[in-house]
Design a protein that fits this description.
Number of domains: 3
CATH architecture of the largest domain: 3-Layer(aba) Sandwich
Oligomer: single chain
Mean pLDDT: 89
Number of helices: 17
CATH class of the largest domain: Alpha Beta
Radius of gyration: 24 Å
Largest sheet: 11 strands, mixed
Strand content: 15-25%
Structural class: alpha/beta
Distance between the termini: 47 Å
Low-confidence stretches: 1-31, 525-532
Shape: globular
Length: 532
Amino acid sequence: MIGLACLENSLAWSAALGLRFAVNMDGGPQRPAMPSVRTLATGLPESKLSGGREEVTCLITDSRRVVPGALFFAIGGLHTDGNLYVEEAIGRGAVGIVSEQPVGRTKQVAWLQVPNVRSALAEVARRFYDHPDRDIDICGVTGTNGKTTVSMLLQYLLTEQPSDTGLIGTVRYDLGPRTIPSYKTTPESVDIYSMLDQMRRHQCRRAVMEISSHAIDQQRIEGLRVGCAVFLNLTRDHIDYHHSLDDYFAVKARFFTGETGNQPEAVAINIDCPYGKKLVGMIPAATRVVTFGRNPEADIRAEDIRLEAGGSRFRAIWPGGETEIFTREPGHYNVSNILAALAACHAKGMELAPLVAKIGGFPGVPGRMERVEVGQPFPVLVDYAHTDDALRNALAMLRQITPGRLLVVFGCGGNRDREKRPLMTRAVLEKADYAWATSDNPRKESVEGIFEDMRKGILQEDAIEFVEDRRRAITLAIDAAKPGDCVLIAGKGHETYQEFADTVVPFDDRLVAKEILSRRDYPANGGEGGNA
């Protein structure tokens, strides 16, 4: 599915559909010469082409979005098979079909048979958009936790002129001077190359990408030329998809060992993580390796870490230099995130001293320890933490800087790894004084069914309350808070929606918390203080 339905202008819709446009000097769209099916298919390994002289205007993976001139890729998925929709695609004007099946029942249009449709899609998209990864220096960031923070920090550090560094990630896609909402951490390969092409046309020289394990496994980055690859950490997540931590790691490792079709020129690896240490030994000899962490053997390391209410201070040490750093981003894990960004820059051959000086000005990441402030006498924070490891790290940090009670609202997503639910509950109850378990994105599961799994991690019954309605749970936490306490609303972060079965409803933890706080009688709201 190409899911950028929220875009409002025609050029954005064109990118969403995979349409290929150039831009006139006056800014208007112009249709360039289009490649034929045969041109795009030439040299694809083990492929067979029937026909193929027709011009291709766009690459499509969803038959409902086929327009005249489209090349349709019949991809098999978890829920359906694109081969079932070939006739629909032809009826809508597709000039060619790419499938793992032989031409068989139709000779109406060009038919390209390939051994792996996803791999073919990645290579054809790269050709269709004229290899934009050759002209843009890409840094790819992967890990269970921290991808968004490190990617946005890297973009901030690498930017020399406005809009010269693009971003593809969980929160947004920055395509030069134009920003659009994200619909997937790492999009389909055709969208990746479309976005890189737009960045190139807007004179971007660099791009930072979040690389998910699903994207690696589903070959969305197959053949992508990456200058630097960054490994942050690996903890339990997506086991419903990968089946085991070892399988999960094996997928991640492919990004660093050249198994995705292009070996990164340099890699930055966190050796505080046991999987990072293991990964270092798997990197080909010709690839530059820079390690980071608190480990004294790391190339880029942190010492003398001090956590404060307003952020963190630490000493950063690298080959040939060291300095004191203050960051408004709190917690040990954000120290690690900063080290990751610096290690990536060092791996790219950049001088670190001027970059370190910029870190204090980093504006932060939406939904990552984001404060909701209306004058209340206690902090309210919204964070994306949605694994037991992320929750444990976030709460351990908050415990160190919270003089009063730590109050937590959290939930577990539906149709995802059920085994991590009790682990998340246990992680919260180990650190929090009181918690409200509530809905996250239930999807097609019942909230009560999710709660049943979560209850298996309860350490003490009197420290947690289960509340199906998320707004109600946030209200209860805020009403319970007193001066000196801290309220953490975890799990959704920057998200502005909730998923229920076959519907999506607006819901933003930050806006909901602000609305609830604004109704209370705090001094900033014109009252006499205290809690309602």
